[in-house]
Write a structure and sequence with these properties.
The chain is built from one helix and 16 strands. It is mainly β and 165 residues long. It folds into two domains: 76 residues, Glycoprotein, Type 4 Pilin (2-Layer Sandwich), CATH 3.30.700; 74 residues, RNA polymerase II/Efflux pump adaptor protein, barrel-sandwich hybrid domain (OB fold (Dihydrolipoamide Acetyltransferase, E2P)). Strands 1-2-3-4-5-6-7-8 form an eight-stranded antiparallel barrel. Strand 2 and strand 3 form a beta hairpin.
C-alpha cells in the first residue's frame, strides 16, 4: 500500500514493501519500528541508525518528536486521498463542481436527482470499489446539475459522474 505523508507541509510518497523495508519517494530504506511498552515512545532504526521517537495524536495530525525537534505529520493512503479529492476537499463555494470517480468501480445507487437542492455533506451516490462501498458526498450546498451515471453503471477513475451548481 502507498501512503502520502505530509510532514510540516512537505509531501512524501511512502510505500511499505515488507516488514523491514520501506520506499520513501522511490528510495528504499531498511527500518525497524517498535513501540516501547504501550507508551507514546517508539524505537526507530533507519538504515542502521537508531532514534527514539515520541508520537502523539493531535486533533488533525500526528505530532512526532525526534532528536528534540517536533514534526507535524499527516498520513493518508491513496484511497483516502482520492475520496477526499472526489468529495471536494477544497472546493470553491461558487461555480460548477464536477464530481469525478475517485477510483474505478460500480455505481450502487444514485441518491439525488437533477434539479434537487443538496447541502454540504449530503450523500450523492454510493460507489463500490474493491468490494467496499464508498459514499460520495456533496462538497458544498447547491443544486444537482447533470447526472451522467445510473445505478449499476461501471465508471473509470476520474470519469465525470455529476455536477453541483
Amino acid at each position: 500500500m502507498k501512503y502520502i505523508t505530509t510532514i510540516d507541509g512537505k509531501e512524501f510518497l511512502v510505500e511499505i514493501i515488507d516488514d523491514r523495508h520501506v520506499s520513501i519517494d522511490g528510495k528504499i530504506v531498511e527500518v525497524d519500528f517498535e513501540s516501547v511498552r504501550s507508551q507514546p515512545v517508539f524505537s526507530l532504526i533507519v538504515d542502521g541508525k537508531s532514534y527514539e521517537a515520541y508520537v502523539y495524536e493531535g486533533e488533525e495530525d500526528l505530532e512526532v518528536l525526534v532528536k528534540g525537534r517536533l514534526y507535524h505529520s499527516k498520513v493518508e493512503d491513496e484511497r483516502e486521498r482520492r475520496l477526499r479529492a472526489a468529495s471536494g476537499g477544497d472546493v470553491a463555494d461558487t461555480g460548477i463542481f464536477h464530481l469525478k470517480a475517485p477510483m474505478p468501480g460500480l455505481v450502487v445507487s444514485v441518491s439525488v436527482e437533477e434539479g434537487q437542492e443538496v447541502k454540504k455533506g449530503d450523500v450523492l451516490l454510493i460507489l463500490e470499489s474493491m468490494k467496499m462501498q464508498n459514499e460520495l458526498k456533496s462538497p458544498r450546498d447547491g443544486v444537482i446539475g447533470r447526472i451522467q451515471v445510473a445505478d449499476g453503471d461501471s465508471v473509470e477513475q476520474r470519469q465525470k459522474i455529476l455536477s453541483v451548481e
